[in-house]
Amino acid sequence: MAKGVKPRVKVPKKAAAGDTITIKTLISHKMESGQRKDDDGNVIPRSIINRFTCDFNGENVVDVTLEPAISTNPYLEFEAKVPEAGEFKFTWYDDDGSVYEESKKIAIE
Amino acid sequence: MTILKGALGAFILAGTVAAGAMADPVDDTLTINAEMTLVTRTAAPDHVSDVLDEVMSGWLFRGTETRAMQADDFDNPGMIFVEQAEDVWNTADGSEGKSCADCHGASSDMAEVRPTFPKWNDAAEKVFTMEMQINDCRENRMGAEKWKYTGGDMVNMTALLASVSRGLPVNVAIDGPAQSTWEEGKELYYTRTGQLELSCANCHEDSYGKMIRADHLSQGQINGFPTYRLKNTKLNSAHARFKGCVRDTRAETYNPGSPEFVALELYVASRGNGLSVEGPSVRN
Predict the structure, then answer these.
(1) Domains identified in chain A and CATH numbers
(2) Is the ipTM above a cut-off of 0.95?
(3) B245 an active-site residue?
(4) What b/e readout covers B45-74, taking b as 16+ CB neighbours within 10 angstroms?
(5) How high is the pLDDT of residue A81?
């Protein structure tokens, strides 16, 4: 199981209705590719975040497949249109079956 | 033909001016998270006013993207390590079963600490760096194993203690019992080392603002340490940086944590008295 995994998200607290906002996400994760060997020559098993999703009020914003060549602490930045007040829900899926979740509310000004 | 020569001459002149302008520190203001403005240039403290008019943070010598990265805690990769240290701060360790927080309270209560280090320690009768103070706590109060001077745990913890002090001016004491150590540090700063026979001052006092091959020479201030370097993607302590610099003069270096580097750290820190604590800063 991956250790020290911690999701972080940055979403503006409020936006005008219909505005496009920038969302930044980062999860601390070692992203072991499965292609490296340890000192004894044994393959270090793959352990990565393989999927990331973001939903807004139940509607999908992005759904990303992550591959083994992505570096430690994957950082994803994307834009979303905010038609109404609500909640962004972020989900990261780990190879080991763990699911990490984070959510942020946004208000309409 | 004459016209062509004139045009060529003008072109070369323009090129030289552009290159010269690029090497100057930028005129920019460092505001962290759009709310806290840090002092990145200020009048030189008295003891260096004979050689410098103004002291400047290394932040002013870095590129636009690197500067922006430090201005937002989310984008600053060093803050990941600060968060890891925050967990360690609150976790008991050693035979006494105590955490840092058990004696010191919240890490944010430690804001007054970083700006005054390195600092004279009465009990040990020598100048202590942050790292020495942390290991003293671990060994004598927590009954825990000492950390390696430039190890990950150590540099993370110093990053946490620097992060809570951001915005406060560096203010190390150079008089009183610390004075002799400070003078040793000054001696080292001006001593040429290695096959290249370079002292700290040759680059960071005489030539800051110029390019050293592809890199932009700063004043070598350490107010931003520990610093996240993009080239090795981790936090770097001041002593690790000193070691790198001395090595680059092609000398056998002192070790991180050695009395020589402790003295040098005190002296270099004192040259930045008045600049804001910036750690963990972002540099290339």
Answers:
(1) 6-108 (2.60.40.10)
(2) no
(3) yes
(4) beebeeebeebbbbbbbbeeebbebbbebb
(5) 92
